[in-house]
Amino acid sequence: xxxxxxPLNDEARLDKLARRRARAKLAFFSHAxxxxxxxAGLIALSLAGGRxxxxxxxxxxxxxxxxxxxxxxxxxxxxxMMESMxxxxxxxxxxxxxxx
Length: 100
What we know:
By secondary structure, the chain is mainly alpha-helical. Helices cover 78% and strands 0% of the residues. The protein is built from three helices and no strands. It has helices at 8-49, 55-73, 80-96. Helix 1 packs antiparallel against helix 2 (55-73).
């Protein structure tokens, strides 16, 4: 019994998408690690100075980190949400298509 394989162009496209998504996830992990390290230092400086100003860069950068995470895990090409939106859009376009 032979294992089914994708045609070469589909397999290459799938590999390209998988590599793209893996790079995006790796970039997000490094972004999160840098966020944690820098903000830990800022919190230490803030507490040593007696004022609690570190919450502002923590929240501002946190919004950016959240957006980065959403773009990688929720709205990424090939992701579940993106694929379901594409399928719904295709179905809508087919239902509105005029018969030949």
